[in-house]
Each structure stands twice: as C-alpha cells, then as structure tokens.
Design a protein that fits this description.
Blueprint (H helix, E strand, L loop, with lengths): L2 H31 L2 H8 L3 H7 L3 H7 L1 H17 L4 H18 L1 H11 L9 H27 L8 H25 L6 H16 L9
C-alpha cells in the first residue's frame, strides 16, 4: 500500500469516526442542542479536527443523509427496472419504502427535517449538489414507475412527477407525524399500521377501476 493510499484510507476512517459520533450526539441531544464540541468529545477528537472534515454542524448533519439517499436511489432504481405489471411494481415500491425506513430510522427522520429546513442553505455547493442529485434521481425513478402505469392504462392520467411527489410526501409526512406523536406519548407508536393504511388508500386512488370490497 502506497503512502498516498494509506493517507486516504486514514482520512476516510477518521471521517467515519466523526459521523458515527455525530449520529450518537444528534440522537441524544437533537440537532439544535448539539454542538461541534459535543461531537468532538464523543469522537475523542479536538474540535479543530472536525472542521478539517466538515465546515459546520449543518454540513455534518446533512452528510449523514447521503447513505440513506444512496440506498433509496438503489432500491427505487431496482423497482423501476424490474419486469412485471405496473400494479405489481407499485406493491414492490411500497415494500422498498419500508426497507428504506428500516435501513436507518433516525437518519431518515433527520433527512426529512433537513429537507424542510433552512439548513440546506449552509451546506457546501458540493454536498448540496450530491443531495439534490440523489433526491432528483430517486423521484425520477418513482415517477417513471407511475409513467409506465399511466401509459398502460393502469394508473390515473395525472402527471407522473406529481404522483411521485404525492407518494413521497405521503411517506415522509406519516413518518414525521408519528414521530411527533411519540414525543408526546411514547406509547403511541402506530407507524407501520398508519403507513399500511396510507399506502392502501394511495394505491386505490391512483389505480383505475378499483372495486371496493363489499361491506
């Protein structure tokens, strides 16, 4: 192993060390209360070392979202490319959303908060471009699934991007709403049941000529 390769590997190892510590701190203290000093202490590094890798707390927070965005992109891409009728692809897409949530619930929730906050304005252009590119590709893959269904007469004739946006908003909204309810009462954890009902209603609404079951 060459010197340069060793340095790059050590740099990546240190970066991962910081991100693992940041995830713990954000989980324990929340984004607003957490500081770079808290994260440095958790990572057993000096605050100055953190700033060699991340320019501010917002960038560190946003960097945690990249892995789950990459996973989302891969999962919905596989659904788009698989063979089968559109209604089956919609079922598989819904299963993919459960997988995305299970991949890392905390970071997924952080990502939803990130996308609806002013934090994005404090990111480096490079990181912001990565986030926007992965988000755009994922929504594009989802909209392709709906576009195919519309062209085959299976889904209602609405703009596929609009349907993709509604699908994503449904998923993120239910997750965030149930997270908020659990803050008030930890016993109120009905996420999976609520997601199942939401996706069922969406599936019925987006599919043409769906007969409702008899009372």
């Amino acid at each position: 192993m060459g010197i340069q390769e060793r340095k790059e590997r050590e740099k990546e190892r240190r970066r991962q060390q910081i991100m693992v510590a940041a995830k713990r701190v954000f989980s324990d203290r929340g984004f607003n209360r957490a500081t770079m000093e808290d994260i440095a202490k958790e990572a057993e590094l000096s605050p100055g070392t953190l700033y060699l890798y991340f320019k501010n707390k917002e960038e560190l927070y946003a960097s945690l979202s990249l892995r789950i965005l990459q996973y989302l992109h891969i999962r919905v891409g596989h659904v788009r490319d698989e063979e089968g009728p559109p209604e089956k692809k919609l079922e598989t897409l819904i299963e993919a959303m459960y997988d995305v949530y299970a991949f890392d619930p905390l970071i997924l929730i952080n990502m939803f908060h990130l996308q609806s906050s002013e934090t994005l304005k404090n990111l480096s252009p490079e990181l912001l471009e990565q986030i926007e590119d992965l988000s755009r590709k994922s929504i594009g893959a989802i909209s392709s699934i709906f576009k195919e269904g519309i062209e085959k007469g299976v889904f209602i004739d609405r703009h596929p991007v609009a349907l993709a946006d509604i699908f994503w908003a449904l998923f993120s909204g239910v997750v965030l709403w149930n997270t908020s309810k659990r803050i008030i009462d930890i016993r109120k954890d009905y996420l999976m049941q609520t997601l199942q009902a939401a996706f069922e209603v969406f599936g019925r609404g987006v599919t043409r000529n769906v007969a409702l079951p008899a009372e």
